[in-house]
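We were asked to recover a plausible sequence for a given structure. The inputs and outputs are reproduced exactly as logged, with field labels preserved.

PROBLEM: sequence recovery
POSITIONS: 227
GIVEN STRUCTURE:
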């Protein structure tokens, strides 16, 4: 775990994207990878480092630090350790609650809650929008115009490809669907939960993905593999 000591925050947090989506273990995996209680000991070191940063403030007691570490572990064990390092780094940067005379554990927890439910969610939404934009750009050259589509619809045709492209007949679910490697990869990311989304966020992203692409991620993978 030396690679994730508090003094490595500067190096790791330089790459915000990697903090969110990089190949780092989630907190609850740490004890499995190392030994029991490693995760809470690691959290204690991060909290101690935060207190050292605010050296003129009244510090938390050892009991408070241990309890705070346990609370974070139990409530936010799904976070990557890189995300937690980014949180503590952002806290130092003044992006969340500010301490006054003393370091207050409730302010740390309030800030972490905001980090998870606002900052983190926004990062995942923006990444999903990038993936969707790549998908839309990839399929543009192959789609017929609106006028052609309406004309084909009146004639009972279901192909949405331009002349010269692969004009195969589609089912209703596959109308306007262009199978691309980029979109296939984004479907795989959701089905395999590549980015370790919490279950509620994963479910909402899958629903949004299905709405945007007309089929579920799993169905898209099936279609792509059978093309």
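RECOVERED SEQUENCE:
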């Amino acid at each position: 775990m030396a690679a994730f000591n508090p003094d490595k925050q500067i190096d790791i947090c330089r790459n915000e994207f990697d903090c969110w989506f990089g190949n780092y273990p989630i907190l609850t995996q740490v004890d499995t990878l190392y030994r029991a209680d490693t995760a809470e000991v690691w959290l204690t070191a991060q909290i101690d480092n935060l207190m050292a940063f605010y050296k003129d403030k009244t510090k938390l007691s050892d009991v408070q630090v241990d309890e705070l570490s346990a609370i974070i572990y139990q409530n936010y064990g799904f976070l990557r350790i890189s995300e937690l390092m980014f949180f503590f780094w952002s806290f130092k940067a003044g992006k969340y609650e500010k301490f006054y005379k003393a370091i207050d554990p409730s302010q740390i927890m309030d800030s972490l809650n905001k980090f998870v439910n606002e900052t983190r969610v926004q990062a995942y939404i923006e990444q999903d929008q990038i993936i969707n934009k790549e998908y839309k750009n990839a399929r543009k050259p192959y789609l017929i115009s609106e006028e052609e589509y309406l004309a084909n619809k009146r004639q009972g045709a279901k192909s949405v490809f331009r002349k010269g492209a692969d004009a195969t007949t589609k089912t209703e679910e596959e109308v306007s669907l262009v199978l691309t490697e980029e979109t296939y990869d984004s479907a795989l990311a959701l089905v395999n939960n590549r980015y370790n989304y919490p279950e509620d966020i994963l479910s909402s992203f899958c629903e949004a993905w299905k709405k945007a692409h007309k089929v579920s991620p799993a169905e898209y993978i099936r279609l792509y593999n059978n093309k």
